[in-house]
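Page 42, continued from yesterday. The earlier attempt failed because a stray header line got pasted into the input along with the sequence. Redoing it now with the clean sequence only.
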Amino acid sequence: MSSVLDALGAELCQEDPGACAAVIQDGRVIAQTCNGRSDLSTGTPNTPGTVFPIASLSKPLTALTVLKLVADGRLDLDGRVGHYLPHYDGEGSSARVRHLLTHTSGIPNFYLLAGFLDGPVRRHHTSQQIMDVFAPLPLQFEPGTRYGYSNSGYRLLDIIIEAVTHRPFAAALDEQVFAPAGMHASRVLDDQVAVDDRATGYQPDGDGWRSPSPISWSIPGGAGGVASTLDDFASFDRALWSMSLCDQRVLDLMAAPTSLQSGRTEGIGMGWVCTSYRGERILSFAGGITGFASFYCHLPDSGTSVVILGNRTDLKVYDLARSILDDIVPPVEPRRHDPLATASSIWDGAYADTLQTVRLAARGSEYELHDGSVVRQLRHLDASMLVDVADDAIWVRLHDEQPRAITVGYPLTWFTGYRDEASSPS
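This time it went through. Structure tokens are written below.
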């Protein structure tokens, strides 16, 4: 196992920004590596104690705090946002806590609003000012009817945590997660508080590197404002899965796929993305924010976990994690295509969720999936399932509903896109 991490580390120049990665088995680190510099100006190396902003990997920690408060009877999963936040004046006040946890609230993602990343993201905001950014906007869909990734929902969750605990979110997270898990270096970042051993974030700039323009840490909160270390995530892993941090009911809620009102399920629990790789169940989450990238996954059936934390925006955490998992999870027989199936043009069109868009087109016995700059060739595995001819860990599930929808699955992540009817065959 260490040879796999060593090989991954060799891909990162020691003089560049880099990453730390670890493989954990039953709560014990069995292999780890740290490469590159946490600060190019000082030459300080990345270490297991380097503090990295973990961006959206904060969300499972926020979700865990909410679910522990639910277990204590201080929150209700079916309680409405408006009940806990009567000053939140928006259509989203009708959404329930469970909708916020599972990204099924329909509340628009404020990070994606036009112009927000061009200036407002760098200015200090109070929680009320954050809510005022998205509260006036109409819902993108009725709560519980679709999945739509939303940082807004997780910002509302940290404000709800403050409302029911009567404590700042940072203090509540420390009480519910950091302190009992032994995560002594982890924290919610604050513009006014310097953090020892914190990495500097970088992005490629020609043949070198530059630090992106900083954001205000008042912005992400429970959606992405936590910083942590490789050592702390090992402690978190040990405490969570040994159930010293919460009970089995909480773990089950975090890991159970979500049922939509239509009855269809999506691979998102109350905190974890739910996928599988080579037949092995995987719970995971990834994060990316100016200059940083992060990833964590846990394989419940084998008790194995993988953590990756880095201080460079170009770190391909999914590819790195898959390389590690290839050495952990035994290979399986390739999935066989249906040789008699033909592609149908009724599925042609552009499919989008709140973050991305792909285009599907029938081409004889195959489909073309235009996925960013990549064109994938897909064939039927069965009537509703397509697989990538070159990599059968990439698949598409066809959902015969209105509007038509497809779920695109990749190793360790997925998204469901709904068809733009203007792009579909008439």
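Notes: The chain has ten helices and 23 strands.
Reminder to self: strip header lines before submitting.
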